[in-house]
Design a protein that fits this description.
With about 250 residues, the chain is α+β, with helices and mostly antiparallel strands. A hairpin with a 4-residue loop joins strand 1 and strand 2. Helix 2 crosses helix 6 and helix 2 runs antiparallel to helix 7. The chain folds into 2 domains: about 140 residues, no CATH class; about 80 residues, no CATH class. The longest helix has 21 residues. The two termini are about 35 Å apart. The relative contact order is 0.18.
Length: about 250
Amino acid sequence: MITFAVKKWFFDQPRVRALLEPAVADYLEHLGAWIRTTAQRSMRYRKYGSASAPGQPPSAHRPRALLRQHIYYCLDPQTRTVVVGAQVFASPNFERGASMGWNVPFVQEHGFSGTRRLRNWRWKLGMRGWGLGASGWPPRPYQVGDFAVIRGTTYLPDRPEGGALIRSAEGRLHEVKRYANVILLRTPLQAARATMLRPLIYGPMVLERKVTYPPRPFISAAMYTAIDLGLPKKFARQALQRFGLRRSA
């Protein structure tokens, strides 16, 4: 995955043209562009929830196909080779909780099996102005004007999310209807009580889950396709025919 300042080493930059012979720059640029385009086209647009088969390139979802749109190629100045990879970013929502340190391009390309740490999205329930998609972590304590639980009667600690089912009073949380005993907090004492009960009702702030995600390679698959088609030799021969070995001025 590309992690350094790629814009400085795009092939249209003067520093790249000054560093490489014209034929070499042309060869590397054409090879990188072909691999990037092939990797992008291999990611088919599918509906949300429709994943590709393991071993096949990942799916793309409109309108924000981040992985498909943010694949770049540039020069590695140390090895003088072309590098093709996707921009590093984390999943905005993984198993209904924001993933902590989840490198999406790396996981798609190589797969992952192990324990992941996820933010417990339930800690934001009932907080006015802090919807499920709102930014900001960790969530603030409850305040007057929020909706929250101030009394718990029946806890179910065996649930995977560490939640609890409340049965004792009327009213329900507007985001998740199955949670009852939710009221509008009117005093600071009620807000402090709700904040204290939050880990008991919704589980810990950070959850740990075992995850197995099979690899869905897209960059390496495009690279091996280029090698099978003999494109490195083809592009090198075309570059030599156009430029020879003349150095740039």
